[in-house]
Write a structure and sequence with these properties.
single chain, about 250 residues, alpha+beta, Arc Repressor Mutant, subunit A, Beta-Lactamase, two-stranded antiparallel ribbon, 9 helices, 8 strands
């Protein structure tokens, strides 16, 4: 299907302007699009009149996103349901790898399980919906905590009482900080028999458009599995990126 050239250029202008903190000039837009400045001018004037872009407050020759475009974006985000969005991407991955998928949200210093999906052939289906578990002993909790802002992370860690849940649970704040640093470096967290002796889990964070942690997703398996998890964790990280993208997050988080 042939695209309407003017509409296509309009969308590209909106995309370019939305990525620029200080806005873009007509010349910069012309250069980026490889389109004559006169053609860009007509589209820009139309977008200005409609309220989709606006002059930059400190330089009226530069253009940034307008209130109407921002409002449309917010309406989209308001219509997104975190559980439904996570399930849409996570459930097929749980099916593919025959694992149990979970979605959790951080509430103070615990992680609350808000979604569970048991893939066909999965041998693990523990943790009931609504259950609350230690943030430091679960992959969901560590994924959410590792990528939270520094203030939130410090506030939670400072009030934690690190008690053993299993013999593998992290009980030192120094070791927990090291684990969170490793999580940020590789993009996913682990629970290696730290919450239950029979399970291992891998988790990744979900972000909103501001870069704040909305939730976390995980895949769980029995601890004595001989399976290699490199491909699964790679796909889980990509799954997290897709969900975050649906909520307006566009940056890389590791």
């Amino acid at each position: 299907m042939a695209l309407n050239r003017t509409v296509e250029r309009s969308m590209k202008i909106l995309q370019l302007v939305s990525k620029s903190e200080r806005g873009l000039t007509l010349q910069e837009l012309s250069t980026e699009l490889d389109v004559p400045k006169s053609s860009v001018y007509v589209i820009v004037q139309t977008l200005l009149a409609l309220g989709y872009i606006t002059p930059y407050r400190f330089n009226n020759k530069r253009y940034c996103i307008g209130l109407k475009l921002f409002s449309l974006g917010m309406k989209y985000l308001e219509g997104q349901n975190i559980v439904e969005e996570c399930a849409y991407y996570l459930n097929p991955l749980a099916e593919k790898y025959h694992k149990t998928g979970f979605v959790g949200v951080l509430e103070n210093d615990v992680i609350v399980y808000v979604h569970k999906y048991v893939g066909q052939g999965a041998v693990l289906a523990s943790c009931a919906l609504g259950s609350r578990h230690e943030v430091y002993a679960t992959s969901l909790g560590k994924a959410a905590l590792a990528f939270s802002d520094e203030e939130t992370q410090n506030r939670i860690i400072n009030k934690l009482e690190l008690k053993s849940v299993t013999e593998n649970t992290i009980t030192s704040k120094e070791k927990l900080l090291d684990e969170l640093a490793l999580t940020r470096k590789r993009g996913y967290s682990t629970d290696l028999k730290e919450h239950e002796n029979k399970t291992i889990c891998f988790g990744v964070p979900i972000f909103d458009y501001k870069g704040q942690v909305l939730a976390a997703i995980s895949l769980s398996d029995i601890a004595d599995s001989s399976e290699k998890y490199e491909n699964m964790t790679t796909e889980l990280v990509e799954c997290g990126k897709q969900i975050s993208k649906a909520f307006g997050f566009t940056k890389n988080y590791f």
